[in-house]
Amino acid sequence: MKNSKVIKMSNLDVSEVKESSRRDFFKKSIMYSAGALGAGSFLLPTSVSANEKEIMQEAQWSTKLGDPVNKNLYGLPSAYEHNNIRRTHDLLSSGDAYASISMCPIHESEGIITPNGLFFTRNHGGTAQVDPNKWRLMIHGKVKKPIVLTLDELKKYPSETRIYFIECPANGSPEWRGPQFNSLQFMKGMMSSAQWTGVMLKTILKDIGLEKDAVWMLAEGSDNASNPRTIPVEKALDDVMVVWAQNGEALRPEQGYPVRLIVPGWEGNLNTKWLKRLEFSNKPWHSKEETSKYTMLQESGKAIRYFWVNEVNSVITSPCPEKPWSDLKKGDLVEIEGLAWSGRGTIKHVDISLDGGDNWVEADLKGLVLPKSWTRFSYIIKWKGKPLLLASRATDDVGHTQPTIDEETSKVGVESVYHRNAIVTWEITKKGECNNVQIRKHKKA
C-alpha cells in the first residue's frame, strides 16, 4: 500500500511523551459527567449545539414503534454496522473464492470473543454443506475398540466449554520483506477467538483405549479437500477438543458444521473442519498439506516440518490504519488498546513503546486472562500532536517474548510464509494518521 514503509533507524529522535495516569483519565470523565447533569432534562453537556439538541429530541426512532419481535427470528446486526464484515483480497487467494481466506475485522472486535459471523475462514475446497443426520466420525487404527459415531452418540459424552483463539500460521505472512497492507484487518485478520463446546478427545480415547505404540494421530475432514494433518498423541491426550458448538450455537458451515477439531494454540489448519476421521498409528503420515505447505522455510533453504505451535504475539488494535487518531485534539487523554496471544500458554505481560522500541513501559491487562486465548491490553497517554512510533511486545508465562524484525529475520530470513510474530509498529503522524511501518534496528552484533 502507498502509505506503508520501512523505517531504517540508528537513533530515532522522538519527543518525550509522558504517561497520563488512570486517575487523570477518570477525573476527566467525571468532569464531563458533571457537566452533563447540569444541562437539563436530556442530560446534555452545555457545549452541545442547538442543531445537535434538535437531532436528539426529534430522532425518528423515538417517535414511532420499532420492529415487531418476530421480524427476524434469528437476529441480525444493525444495518449501521455494515462495515464490520470479513473481507477478502485477491493476493490471499488461489485465484478463486474456494481455496481462499476471509479476514476477521479485529480492529472492530470488542473483548476476546469473535462473533460467529465475523470469525475468519480458511477453506481449501470451499465451504462444505454437511447433512448432520448422515455425518459420521470414525476413530480407528491403533485403538482397542474402533468406533463410528453419529452426532447424537458423540453428544452423549460429557461436554466442556473453553475459550481459545485460532490463528492461521500465515497470519502476517505478506510482511516478511516489508509492509504490504496499510490495514490491520489484512495484516493480522487471519485469526479469531471463540467459546467452544464439545468433548475432550482424551475422554473418548479413554473410553475406546489406545494401543501402546499409538504415537501419531491423523485428523481428516469430510470436505473435498479433506486436509489431512498429523498430530502427536501427546497433544491429543492433552487439550484437544471435538466440538459441535461455537459461542453458544451450533457451528456454522464456514467453521466446520456439524463437528470440527480444536487443537488449542497450534496452527489453524490442524483444527480440522467437517471432521470425519481420526486414525492412530506408530508413524506420521507426511500428507500433502504438511510437506508441500505448512513448513517453516529457513534461510539455508531447508524447511522445518511439524512446526505446530503459534508463538507469542501481539498487535495494537487502536489506533490502527482503519482507526486513526485524526479526530484528537492536543491534550486529549487517549487509550492505546490491543490484543496479545500465545499458543504456548498465558500472556504474562505486554509492553508498549512510543518511540519504535527504544523505550518500553508495561501496559495493563484487561478482563479475562486465559491460556491460549486472546488477552486485551491497555495503556493511556496524553496526545501532544507529535509523531509517535507505537509498538507492543508480549511475553507469555513460558518466558517467550516477541522478537524484533531484525531478530526474527536474522534466524529464518525473509523467504518464509508462516509463523511471523515480530513486533508490529504503527507510525502516528502529527495529524494523528496511522501507517504500517517496519523498524529496522536493535540488531544484535
UniProtKB/TrEMBL annotation:
In this chain the Oxidoreductase molybdopterin-binding domain maps to: 124-286
Spell out the protein name for this chain: Sulfite dehydrogenase
Q: Which organism is it from?
A: Malaciobacter canalis
- Pfam family of the protein (one): Mo-co_dimer
Which parts of the chain are coiled coil? none
Domain Moybdenum cofactor oxidoreductase dimerisation positions: 310-424
Matches recorded under Gene3D superfamilies: 2.60.40.650, Oxidoreductase, molybdopterin-binding domain
Is-annotated flag, keyword Protein transport? no
Q: Which domain of life is it from?
A: Bacteria
Glycosyltransferase listed as a keyword? no
Q: Which UniProt keywords apply?
A: Metal-binding, Molybdenum, Oxidoreductase
Question: Which cofactor does this sequence's record say it needs?
Answer: Mo-molybdopterin
